[in-house]
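FW: tagging you since you asked about this chain on Friday. Here's the raw sequence from the shared folder, copied in full. Didn't touch anything.
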Amino acid sequence: MGWVSAIAVFFVIWWTVLFAILPIGLRTQDDAGEVTLGTEASAPRGPHMLRVAVLTTLVSLAIFAVLFVLTHVLGYGFDDIPRLTPDFE
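HL: got it, structure written out here
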């Protein structure tokens, strides 16, 4: 895998992990008991995007490291995944 492909794979992993981590630790205005007039009670109480971005980057780096070890160090690829469908040839 070249460096452009590696960046593209990391980008896809990062965005997928972002949407999985985004609700973790989210406190709504209703949870805090401080609903601002004109907003929904389920709106976030305060910004937490820096923490989410850092956590997303760390988890994505760990997943990418596992992928790198499996593909480059151990030599596994898509051809090594067993077929789950029967061969009708």
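FW: The CA atoms of residues 35 and 83 lie 53 Å apart.
HL: agreed, and The mean pLDDT is 86.
FW: great, closing this out.
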